[in-house]
User: Fold this.
Amino acid sequence: MKAVPLKSEISGTVWKIEGAVGAEVETDDVLLILESMKMEIPVLAPRKGRIVEFRVGEGDSVAEDQVVLLFEPS
Assistant:
């Protein structure tokens, strides 16, 4: 299958990356956590699949609708 981009829903900072490139994940697994205004917002796996590539690193600033990772559904 083709990799699909997952986007940030908010402007903020990448607080923590939970997954690893190549990792198999289940629906709603936490892939990374964003921080905005002292709130933690998880980016979840939309379905079962595999992490292809992170486009951000811990501590990076992100904008709303910015692609944060590529995900390949299985």
Q: What stands out?
A: The chain has a mean pLDDT of 96. The chain is about 0% helix and 55% strand. Residues 4-73 form a domain with the OB fold (Dihydrolipoamide Acetyltransferase, E2P) fold (CATH 2.40.50.100). The chain has one domain: 4-73.
